Amino acid sequence: MERFYEYWLHPVNPVPKARALQLAQEAVRRTPGFSDPKYFAAFQLVGAD
After folding, report:
1. What is the SS3 assignment for 12-43?
2. How far is residue 7's CA from residue 4's CA, in Å, rounded to a whole number?
3. pLDDT band at 49, cuts 50/70/90?
4. Distances (CA, A) of 26 to 30, 37, 39, 41
5. pTM of this prediction?
């Protein structure tokens, strides 16, 4: 979840919420021991970007 906010609220290069979630999920998948979908698949973005 921290990564999501780091990407979304970046002071110089913020990204849209949907892209921030995607980047955060990819970061979790690349983390050793956390590649199983149970660690990243449950997060959802609801509402407008």
Report:
1. CCCCCHHHHHHHHHHHHHHCCCCCCHHHCCCC
2. 5
3. low
4. 6, 11, 11, 10
5. 0.82
Kindly give, in sequence order, each residue whose CB lies less than 8 Å from that of residue 23, ignoring residues fewer than 6 positions away. 3, 4, 7, 15
For the chain, the domain total comes to 1
Q: Please give the residue range of the domain that contains residue 20.
A: 2-39
The pLDDT tens digits for 2-32 are: 999 999 999 999 999 999 999 999 999 999 9
* pLDDT band at residue 44 under the 50/70/90 scheme: confident
